[in-house]
Amino acid sequence: MANKILVIDDDEDILELLIYNLQKEGYEVKAAHNGLEGVELSKSFLPDLILMDIMMPLMDGIEAGRVIKTTESLKHIHVVYLTARAEEFSEVAAFDAGADDYLTKPIKPRALMSRINAFFRKETQKNSSENIIEIAGLTINRENYSVIKGDGNVVILPKKEFELLFHLAQMPNKVQSRDDLLHKIWGADIFVVERTIDVHIRKVREKIGEKFIKTLKGVGYMFSDEA
């Protein structure tokens, strides 16, 4: 699926230039002509990245950025400012509003496309690395719920067993109470008895080995990276 980019600028020529080059790179692109329109379009389009001017009518880019970064459904969106204003105070204001980057005009399309492509490559690598934990001779992969053991054998775990293992492995050598694990893995709105945790831990141990998850009686469980 193509990454989505929203371009917000009141200059029609710049919009056309950016839309053409971004679509040529394979991105899904939409455009807005001011900050107010851009914020509203963001709510339905939910772009991965916003390229935004600062000086615009109705709502400028700084205010639009603040609204985006303080709106729960939008705050994850990356914002890059494209502006003719090179003053230090404008750059400071942009980063205070939550900018991920700040680029001055005139726009050099090839350089900008290279920068955007590099940004998305980095994000992909980051997301991939966050889904894989390598610890104590195990490779725990959240993308396919698999665990590769030190001998090379691959174990596929049911979802709840895997989530329990992954959560414990994210915080090695830190004890997690049964109550905390129930809330993290099953959620606060679902009634599950503490015995459920014990059963799932036993099943995980049977599949990956006894030594990785330690029991602290009367407290809870922890993943040991010294296994």
Highlighted features:
2 domains; Rossmann fold; four-stranded antiparallel beta sheet; 227 residues; 12 strands; alpha/beta; Arc Repressor Mutant, subunit A; five-stranded parallel beta sheet
Fold and architecture overview:
The chain is an alpha/beta fold and 227 residues long. The chain is 44% helix and 21% strand. It folds into 2 domains: 127 residues, Rossmann fold (3-Layer(aba) Sandwich); 92 residues, Arc Repressor Mutant, subunit A. The strands form 3 sheets. It has a 5-stranded parallel β-sheet with strand order 2-1-3-4-5, sandwiched between helices. It has a 4-stranded antiparallel β-sheet with strand order 6-7-8-9. Helix 2 runs parallel beside helix 3, helix 6 crosses helix 7 and helix 6 crosses helix 8. The longest helix has 22 residues. The radius of gyration is 24 Å and the shape is elongated.
Classified in CATH, the superfamily of the largest domain is Response regulator
The number of strands is 12
What is the end-to-end distance?
A: 40 Å
CATH topology of the largest domain: Rossmann fold
Radius of gyration, taken over Cα atoms and rounded to an integer in Å: 24 Å
Q: Find the structural class using helix and strand composition.
A: alpha/beta
